[in-house]
Amino acid sequence: MAAATCITKDLRVPVLRNVELDRANFLLEFSAPSMIASMRPAQFFMIGIPGGETLLRRPYSVCGLPGTFEDGADGAAQVLYKVVGRGTALLAALKGGTALDVLGPLGNGFVAPASREVRPVLVAGGIGAAPFPALLAALGPAGPPRMFYGARGAADLPLSAWFERRTELTLTTEDGSAGRRGRVSEPLEEFLSASDPRSLHVYACGPEPMLRAVARLASRFAVRTDLALEAHMACGFGVCLGCVVPTRRAGSEFGYDRVCVEGPVMPAETLAW
Hints:
Layout: E1 9-22, E2 25-31, H1 33-36, E3 44-48, E4 58-61, E5 76-82, H2 86-92, E6 99-106, E7 119-125, H3 132-139, E8 146-151, H4 160-164, E9 168-173, E10 180-181, H5 185-193, E11 200-205, H6 208-221, E12 224-228, E13 244-248, E14 254-258, E15 265-267
Helix pairs in contact: 5-6
């Protein structure tokens, strides 16, 4: 099924709420009904705070669209973020009614399986869980997807309770503070080895080392896998070329694609890692 065409807009929009979930993880909600009408999970926004305190806008994946969260406002989108520096600290200080400069929707998003016979498998690393609430909403009421969610520690698993109510969830932490001790690729490997790969579609988002591990498993088990890449970017629409990644072309040729335009969602087999 072809995805709907999204028209990128540059708007100044109001913050509706900015809620700290736990330990520096925040869910920011803003009103932008015309911007998000045809937006897909894993597409993203470039968000700037008016006033010039930060020079460049920052990329944030859409986390929620209308209907994703039960308490979400009509015509609103949500983004999930963690405070890690000055830009996100300024974002965390915003109150309801504050204006944001938002460019979006940008990039390519996740597309739900065309057949109900295919089971979605979600793989998230830390704040890389951000695109998955919107994806779960897009998947509809079919049987619960399988989800593997890993992080360094329990404090790095925002929305884990929300996911537990909606997926068959396996949690992993490197320090053993929640779920199984270890990396998220370990239970994923066990699951894939016991499954029919033709019946699965893997969706993954997280830090690059995790995505590389998932891509290796995708190749080994021949399972369809889409990766939502994370990258630093200055423009968000393909001009600055600051977010290119090496990719495989037809035959043995290699090239470079832009995460902001050809991605952030790319088939695992196209990445030349």
